[in-house]
Amino acid sequence: MIETRLGDFEEVLMLIIGILGEEDTYAFRIAQEFKTQTNRAVSIGAVHSTLDRLENKGFLKSQTREGTSERGARVKRIYSLTALGKRVLKESMEFKLGLWKQYPAFSGKFNMS
Predict the structure, then answer these.
(1) How confident is the model at residue 5 (pLDDT cuts 50, 70, 90)?
(2) In CATH, what number does 8-102 get?
(3) Where do the structural domains in the chain lie, given as residue ranges?
(4) Are 57 and 2 within 8 A, CB to CB?
(5) Spatial CA neighbour of 58 closest among 27, 89, 92, 26
(6) Could you report the per-residue pLDDT of 70-91, keeping only the tens digit for each?
């Protein structure tokens, strides 16, 4: 059975991939956007290992693209969300919003429409 729960870091990386779109979703760019969005640095090794794990779970797919001259013509591995990955993200969001809605200090402050 495929594990469909996401850790926080996995979830954030998947969201960043969705935000960046399919042209700019290689590991170094994902790490840069992680720092921009969270104000925390992340090692490229942590990004690579997490992307590999998410791809093995079927949440991401990747393809290689020719490198540009600005990158020394190095090949890039571009990541995108699969249908399963999008479904898992949606389920994670719905679960967390459901919990936040039950928290007395915030109940009634969320609109799910």
Answers:
(1) confident
(2) 1.10.10.10
(3) 8-102
(4) yes
(5) 89
(6) 656 778 899 999 999 999 999 9
